[in-house]
From TrEMBL:
InterPro entries documented for this protein: FAD/NAD-bd_sf (IPR036188), GIDA_C_N (IPR049312), MnmG (IPR004416), MnmG-rel (IPR002218), MnmG-rel_CS (IPR020595), MnmG_C (IPR026904), MnmG_C_subdom (IPR047001), MnmG_C_subdom_sf (IPR044920)
Family indicated by similarity: Belongs to the MnmG family.
Function: NAD-binding protein involved in the addition of a carboxymethylaminomethyl (cmnm) group at the wobble position (U34) of certain tRNAs, forming tRNA-cmnm(5)s(2)U34.
Database matches in Pfam families: GIDA, GIDA_C_1st, SAM_GIDA_C
Organism annotation: Rhodonellum ikkaensis
Subunit and partners: Homodimer. Heterotetramer of two MnmE and two MnmG subunits.
Protein name: tRNA uridine 5-carboxymethylaminomethyl modification enzyme MnmG
Domain tRNA uridine 5-carboxymethylaminomethyl modification enzyme C-terminal subdomain: 546-617
Binding site for NAD(+): 271-285
PROSITE patterns, A to Z: GIDA_1, GIDA_2
The UniProt record lists the keyword Metal-binding: no
Signal peptide start and end residues: none
Length: 621
């Protein structure tokens, strides 16, 4: 009934969809197995993509040839570039999405991808021979064979849902938990752990009084995620609103604390620190009289509203009572209560940089199963696991991104070397080269790499090369063209044009903090006409590169230094245990993680600088 597949992907969440699409696009014969085909690419929590650091990840996925950016663009209901007032390293695209359309677009994209087959069933185990995965076993006992398997089970492994004192098995509300895989993997020698996450109640938008809330519009000139021309920025947008909790809401919530699974010890898994439940917030920050609530539509046509900031696992009657004390929510009708979910994960220090497991060859883990939280984090891991599973099947070199190349590189490097005790989410502060890893240049950083492995198509590649050439030409022009002091009549607060005594190049003028290309264009109609022949992308790129060139250069120098260590390979079978001079902790961690380079070894927590020097000597450097 089934052929032997190159890659079987288990789970059609954000990780699974990217993994299946990437592997198939690269020519692998793929089977995507999922428990319910009607919930492909379900957004389990908020209907939004991107945000700080996460938006950069979506752009990186897109630049490599992944689909999350395109799918998000096709289902966007509001778009904002966050942190525009800060430096370009901090600009972060964020879209509010139509939940149903997002899932539909992903399903259509997968159905249109040649080489992807589907199978709807719970996979209860993998088939292993001689420490190598050779297939999967379904719940009704079918064995399907494959050269590699990617596990992307999300929050489903032995998932338990909590609402107040009620608890029941489930992978998400209304969906069954996945049984059998954790137990089998632990039997094979894997270490497993437990984490938790939560989601807020959803309400009927028709029952809210928006006049009591602050309206939040999208950007006036919205952008989009994808660098490709397959999508366009949206023309119309839906607004969101902001309101706040108050002391009455807090008192109502506190009444349920004795029935809270968070506080009575029933939930043991660690939750996401940066996405706490409302009960956690009022408990930890008792002095705060209010917390912000974002009131977000779930789509274009639906009346359902997502109450962002009000994640809770308190009993449903407590949720209902408390939510109606929020300003604007006095008559709120609840569609679904909030809940918390506990699930199994596998500490990611058990993985190689390709996301293949150390223990079982050709078995890959991606997404929430690795202890991360967030669609973007999951999607990017799925993409990398799918790429690597496909490359390995074709006996090609692995594809690994460096920390200096992408947030995706930072994410995977952190996971495999440091592990994570709590749900890991990406922040700009986790990246040491954030001026290099901007959302505006992900195509310049990554499209060529995606093209080389057969994922990014020729059209993307040409578009990126045009942008690169255009930017270089523009920078050259800005270096040549000069203006006399009397031609520079810009009046801007804090700008003293009197200090400009002689002719100055546009490049030098642009380096002044207050002046951007928009101001320069306003100086002279000819200049405006001339500069307007360049694309918006090239203008933005040139401005950033000129304004921040000294900082960018400093980061590049640091990268070069780091690359010396990064390029120094350690043989996979290296005998750490035989080096008595290594510290006990260093020896144990190096032996477990088996770093592929000296650079990677340097980032393993517990490996000291002394251990590194000893290692360098033994490697005969
Ligand atoms: P999922 O999206 O969970 O997808 C898993 C897929 O695997 C599903 O399609 C499922 O059907 C399938 N599957 C599982 N087991 C099997 C099996 N044995 N056989 C076949 N198919 C299987 N993220 C945030 O960033 N912020 C939040 O506030 C937040 N809150 C959340 C609240 C809740 C209640 C939940 C459930 C998730 C929340 N998340 C949040 C996390 C976010 O949803 C996930 O990080 C993201 O969806 C993970 O993607 P994934 O692909 O790893 O897994």
């Amino acid at each position: 009934m089934f052929p032997i597949y190159d890659v079987i992907v288990i789970g059609a969440g954000h990780a699974g969809c990217e993994a299946a699409h990437a592997a198939a696009k690269m020519g692998s014969k793929v089977l995507l197995c999922t428990m319910n085909m009607n919930t492909i690419a379900q957004m389990s929590c908020n209907p939004a993509m991107g945000g700080v650091a996460k938006g950069q990840i979506v752009r990186e996925i897109d630049a490599l040839g992944g689909m999350s950016g395109i799918v998000s663009d096709k289902s966007t209901i509001q778009f904002r570039m966050l942190n525009r007032s800060k430096g370009p390293a901090m600009w972060s695209p964020r879209a509010q999405n139509d939940r149903m359309r997002f899932a539909e677009e992903w399903r259509l994209a997968l159905e249109r991808t040649p080489n992807v087959d589907f199978w709807q069933e719970m996979i209860s185990g993998i088939v292993v021979k001689d420490n190598r995965v050779v297939g999967v076993r379904t719940n009704i006992g079918i064995e399907i064979l494959a050269k590699s398997v990617v596990l992307t089970n999300g929050t489903f492994l032995n998932g338990i849902i909590h609402i107040g004192e009620k608890q029941f098995g489930g992978g998400r509300t209304g969906e069954s938990a996945s049984k059998g895989i954790t137990e089998q993997l632990v039997g094979l020698g894997f270490e497993a752990g437990r984490m938790k996450t939560g989601t807020p109640p959803r309400v009927d938008g028709r029952s809210l009084d928006y006049t009591k809330m602050e309206i939040q519009h999208g950007d006036e000139n919205p952008e989009k995620f994808s660098y490709s021309d397959e999508t366009k920025p949206i023309k119309e947008q839906r607004p969101c609103w902001i309101t706040y909790t108050n002391t009455n809401v807090h008192k109502a919530l506190e009444k349920g604390f004795d029935r809270s699974p968070m506080f009575n010890g029933r939930i043991q898994g660690l939750g996401p620190r940066y996405c706490p439940s409302i009960e956690d917030k009022i408990n930890r920050f008792a002095e705060r009289e209010r917390h912000q609530i974002f009131v977000e539509p779930e789509g274009w046509d639906t009346v359902e509203i997502y109450v962002n900031g009000f994640s809770t696992s308190l009993p449903e009657d407590v949720q209902y009572d408390a939510i109606r004390k929020i300003e604007g929510f006095e008559q709120a009708k609840m569609f679904r209560p909030g809940y918390a979910i506990e699930y199994d994960f596998f500490p990611p220090t058990q993985l190689k940089a390709t996301l293949e497991t150390h223990l079982i060859e050709n078995l890959y883990f991606a997404g929430q199963i690795n202890g991360t939280t967030g669609y973007e984090e999951a999607a990017s891991q799925g993409l990398m696991a799918g790429i690597n599973a496909s490359l390995k099947t074709d006996e090609k070199d692995p594809f690994v991104l460096k920390r200096s190349e992408a947030y995706i590189g930072v994410l995977i490097d952190d996971l495999i070397n440091k592990g994570t005790e709590e749900p890991y989410r990406m922040f700009t502060s986790r990246a040491e080269f954030r001026l290099l890893l901007r959302q505006d240049n992900a195509d310049l950083r990554l499209t060529q790499l995606g093209h080389q492995i057969g994922l990014a198509d020729d059209v993307r590649m040409e578009k990126m090369l045009d942008k690169k050439a255009d930017t270089a030409r523009l920078i050259n022009d800005l270096k040549q063209k000069k203006l006399a002091p009397e031609e520079i009549n810009i009046s801007l607060e804090g700008l003293d044009t009197a200090t400009i005594k002689e002719k100055i190049t546009l490049e030098k003028l642009l380096k002044r903090p207050q002046i951007g290309l928009t101001q320069i264009m306003e100086l002279d109609a000819n200049l405006k006409q001339y500069l307007s022949k360049y694309s918006k992308d090239a203008l933005e790129q040139a401005e950033i590169l000129i304004k921040y060139d000294s900082y960018i250069e400093k980061e590049q120098q640091m990268v070069e230094k780091l690359n010396n260590m990064e390029n120094y390979k350690i043989p996979i079978e290296f005998d750490y245990l035989g080096i008595t001079a290594l510290s006990a902790e260093g020896k144990q961690k190096l032996n477990k993680i088996r770093p592929e380079t000296l650079g990677q070894a340097s980032r393993i927590s517990g490996v000291s600088p002394a251990d590194l020097s000893i290692l360098t000597v033994y490697l005969g450097r």
